[in-house]
Structures are given as structure tokens and as C-alpha cells.
Model the fold of this input.
Amino acid sequence: MAESSYFNIFVTHVVDAIDYKDSPSLCNLIFCGQKNRDVALKLEEQIKACSFDTSPEPTLSDLKKEKIFCVLLNNIWVRAEFHEIAKDSFGYYMDVFCIDYGSIQSIPLNFCRVIPPGARSIADINCNPPLASKFLLADVLIANGPKGKESALLYLKQHMENKIVKAVPLGVHNGFEGVRVYLNDQLVAKLLVDNHIGKAATTYITALQTPVPTKRIFFVESVTPLEPHAAKNFPTRKSSSICSTRSLFTPPINGNLSYTQSFLEANGTHFVTVTDVHNGPAKFAVQRKSPEAEESMNIISKQLSNYTDQNPKPLTVTSHGTPCIAVSGRDKQFHRGLITSSANDGQYFRVYFVDQGYTDLVPINFLFEIPPALVMLELLAIRVGLDEAESLFIHNGVSQIFTKLVLNKTFRCKVVDPSIPQTVVLIDANGRSVKDLVLDCLNHPNAVRSVLSLNIQQVSAPASPNPALIRADLKV
Done:
């Protein structure tokens, strides 16, 4: 039998199983991938050279003007197109279509960047066609039903995702590009059949009799480029063991279980401690320092302690915006959290700790269901921005200086703009605004060290009963 030619596919993700047209009891397997991986890697290097990590966060209107912009996905900046804007109880996020990976992802606005006009290779970044395609795995069928689909999708996810496979083109079937796939020169259809996961299709015997291809085709054009609407039409899955086409940023189905965002009252002066800095002076988290806030912390700590003494249930719904109880890697204690994204094939999740104001990576076995009573209590951390922060970003090193000036320090705080996210003015014990302190550092580089080490006088918060905070023992 004549040898077939092949092309390489870098498998970006396994999508789902679709009904087999000739039998409702069987399914075909669908996956997405890149035919020209070398081009994709070159593009990623060009995007990396744009230094987005230090670039200012764009506005929503900026992103809507751009046909193509970049988003941070699994610690890599990739190209994307705007799909739609959404809002959950925690704020705005965007659905974007990652044109080189073939998936719709829900991304926070601060994970997006506009390609700067002066960037090198901007023409390549903007004008290169999308590199993702969709494929139908030939020669094998799967039993239609949750058990059959889950087993097959999990097997392909574990063995094919983020790997390069050989693919022999077999034409378009049901709108998908049919391919005979070899992983390490082994027929993938045979691996599924031998493991009792798949059933032989009509082409299976021919596939077994065909020699493993050795003649490679380079620079293959996509027969069926994946469009955003096609990606969105794949059904999503509740199981965290299988990633759907959408990322795990999707808001929870149960809309009744969600936190209510806290805010600072517009009138009067507050005492706050800066607990985390997300994007320099443009976005950071503060925690109230007052007898009332301390009492709230006591109530939350007691309820966490009582709940975790009763063998808490592992978290099963891990979509974006899901409230939970999580163990923080910083203090090894139980805290209230909010799922923001997944990492490492769903074994870890980025969790925003709603009472502390920072985000941390948490293993899935350290995530637990949260009682509704704990969700109803106010959040103790509040995300804010410094008034006129945009005027500071014309200077280099602003975020680093701001972080050193304010992190874990207490200030007087006044609200300038009450709209969410609120903008505030921070004032130290000597009556100086943090903005002025940042400008002092920028204008007198030689004095930065002394300013950072000596000149920040923390504000003393009002006296409180100072009750001992009850913390849950780690029982995981």
C-alpha cells in the first residue's frame, strides 16, 4: 500500500465529542491544533519582545478599537480578538477568541494589552493569519454517553495536549478536517481501541494496514479555520478533569451564591492597610483598619473554624467567579476565596482571597465548598486605584516604587471617585500624599533608598478592643 504524506499538528486542546452522523449511539472526537508550530513560536517571541508585563493596562474602549490585541494566557502573551464583555459579582471581564489556539477564554481586563504602534514586527503580529484549526480524529468512534466521552476525552487530554502529532489528511467531514493521527508513530485510533475506550470505524482496518508516514508536508494552510462562533458552540463541561473550549473563567451557574463587592464610603476618612498591589498605583487592594473591621474578621474566623472542624466538602465547581474556602500558601490557614482561573491542567487554581486582597495559586485539593452564610458576609479587602494614577505611568519604574512605598503599610484614605473601582488618595502620618512621595522618588533617584526606608510614617489606626483573632488549624 502506498505511503501517505503527513503534516505536524501541535495539539492545543481537546475540544469535545460530537454525534456520529450515521449512528446516534456513537461520537467522533474533535480537537484543536496548530499546523505551523514554528510560525506560532516565532510570533510568541515577537509578542514577548513588546514587554507587556511593564505596559500600562488599556481601557475597554482601547481594546474594542483593535482588531487584534494580546492577552496573558497560562503565563504566555498570545493574540486575541474581542468577543464580548461580561460582568459578574466581582467586576468586568472579557470573552476573547485566541486566534492561534482556537478557544474562547474569559480574561480579566488587566490581562489584556494593546500592541504598541512602535513595536518591532508589528506587521507580522497583526497580519499573520490565525494559526488554529479544528480536526476530527479519524478511524475511531466513541460510545455516546457521559462515561464513554469522559474516558476518551481524558485519555486524549493526557496523551495528546501540548504535543506534536503526525496527521494524514482525509478530507472534510461534518465541517471538520478529518485526520489520521499518529502519536510517537503509533496510531491513536489503535491506542483507543486497545484500551477499550474507542470502537473501530469503517476506516480502521485500512489505517492498520497503512505504513506509518515518513514524508512530511511543510507550511500547510488551514482547510477549516476555527471561527469564534464555532468555538463557542461546543458544549461546556462541569467536570474539572476535562477542560472545555471555554476556560475556567466562566461565571458560576448558580447565580445565587456570589459575594457582594465591598466599597469605602465616600464621606469621611478611612484607615486602611495596603495588602496587595495588582498593577502599581492603578489597582491595589486595601483592608480596613477599625474596630468594626476587626470584629468582622473575628466573626469570619470563628465561622471558618467551626466549618473546617466538620470535614468540609471538596470543591467540585471550579468556574470563574465561584466562591470557596481555600488554604493560603502564605499562612497555611483557611480563608474565603474566589476562583479566577485554572493552571497546570486544572490541578491548581488562581484564587483571589477576598478578605486579604491578594491572589495565590492553590492546589485543587486545598479548595472547599463554602457555606452560604459565609458568602453573605461583607468582603474585608477592597480593590481601589490611586487618584490620577495614569499621570504617574509616564515614568519608568512607577509600579516598583509604589509597591515598596505602600505594601503592608497603613494610611489615611479618602475617596475621590466613588464609582467602582473607587479612586482614592492615601496620606501618611506626616500629611503627605503617596502620589507626592512617588513623584519625589522619581524626581530624586539618589534619594529613593532614604525615602523608602525612613520617610514613610505609618498612620496609627484607631484604638480597638484588640480581640484575639481566631484562626482555623490546618486540617487538610
